Amino acid sequence: MHRSFPFIVVSVFRSALALVQKDGVGKLPALGWSSWNAFACDVSEEKIMTAANEMVNLGLKDAGYEYVNIDDCWTVKAGRDSSTNQLIPDPTTLPSGIKGIAKNIHALGLKIGIYSDDGTTTCAGYPASLGYESLDAATFAAWGIDYLKYDDCNVPPEWMDQYESCVPEPRDSYPGPFQNGTCPPKYYSRPPPPASYDWSTSNTTKRYNIMRDALLAQNRTILFSLCNGGQAEVSTWASATGNSWRMSGDITPDWSRIVYILNENSFLLNSVNFWGHNDADMLEVGNGNLTLEENKSHFAFWAAMKSPLVIGTALDELSGELVDVLKNWYLLAFNQDAVFGEPAKPYKWGTNADWTWNSTSPAEYWSGASGNGTLVLAFNPLGSAVQKEIVWNEVPELKSGGAAFEVTDVWTGEKLGCVSRGINRTAASHETVGFVVGTECQGTLQSSNLVGSLRSQTSSVRSGPMTSGGGRGVRPVREGL
């Protein structure tokens, strides 16, 4: 173990404070694997170590993935140790204990994450950390934990917030709609806050800060991942508390849910930079009945938005085609870029008018700067193939440049040469085409000469260790189609 000496500094990239930890922990989005989406409460030491070994065998470790995270249901459900009050790893499902598993994961050159909650019990009803923050943080550090996912279930009344924030997602008491991405009065179970309310003074913030301080007091650097479902306007204060924060409710392996989160997060990206990241939730690549195009679009946008990329599927059952998606060098390099901390953002909505909040047809044209060039994505949310045209002088990062640039296809790695004006592609239903636009050049190829379909192309882009070579505002206007 080592003394971490973490501290909070004023970020030069945005007005909020940022939690800065030793050795760059949390500066870039976390890359790893989690047990929850694949196994939920059916977690075991065998499954965890299978995932860890497959991260090495499949080349995911070499591509940059490092955390192996044990989610909910890892403790004895009956309660804490009667003499020490420590959490007790389930001896049946985790016979080596967390400390033993951590030792084995570290031996593979990987890191280990654990889960707890800021309420009386976790979301699945297991012992949680409210009132035991210092003890649990010390226990986690002694076990060799490198990452804590901290959930927000079963909070007692005395710790509830006075006000309720708007998270524009359907729930049992109010299924929608959410005009302009706002919540009507009947959405709220508690009063909404006055306009001047500062959510950094809320009980939610206090609960998370207590655990933050407990972790910082340890002789070990532990990445702190907040998981409060986007409540309490978390993106306005969380960069001073944790390294990432969930901006929405839970993901599911359904295309409609993935697109909903994409739309929701597209209006929250001004809070993302070095040391703090909106967490769009764990990846569903390889789960459910997603098509190849949907899996690729899901991964592309989570990477481009600089969300943590936490794989959530059984790695020993994952197809080689989808392993290649998860190892896409260009998208991972953008997500982990050491030069530019801001994410890609929409610059044109496409089907809808710009700034349209639409939970089924979100923004289609995105761009972001990186040390390797400008990443440009064009997304087809429709049910049939359409032609997507990317025009260089519409892309904010390219407007001050010339008319022609060196271009690389992010899915195939193909160098397209010096391309003038822009580029066209036919995108299949739910497909995303993507390019890294590099240095200016003397154009010889016109966009009209680069028309084709990516439907038959595989994601066989090279993979391996990543190297890295004024934000647009985001605001909803109206519900669209």
Descriptors:
single chain; 481 residues; alpha/beta; 8-stranded parallel sheet; 7-stranded mixed sheet; 21 strands; globular; disordered N terminus
Could you please describe the fold and organization of this structure?
With 481 residues, the protein is of the alpha/beta class. It has 9 helices and 21 strands. The protein has helices at 36-39, 45-57, 97-107, 133-143, 203-216, 255-266, 292-304, 320-326, 329-335, and strands at 7-10, 17-20, 31-34, 67-69, 111-117, 147-151, 223-226, 244-246, 277-279, 309-311, 345-348, 356-357, 365-370, 373-379, 386-391, 404-409, 415-420, 422-427, 432-440, 445-446, 478-479. The strands form 5 sheets. Strands 9-8-7-6-5-4-3-10 form an 8-stranded parallel beta sheet. It has a 7-stranded mixed beta sheet with strand order 11-13-14-19-16-17-20. A two-stranded antiparallel ribbon has the order 1-2. Helix 4 (133-143) runs parallel beside helix 5 (203-216) and helix 6 packs parallel to helix 7. The longest helix is centred in the middle third of the chain and has 14 residues, at 203-216. It is globular and about 75 Å long. The termini are far apart. 51% of the residues are buried. Mean pLDDT is 91; it is low at 1-15 and 451-481.
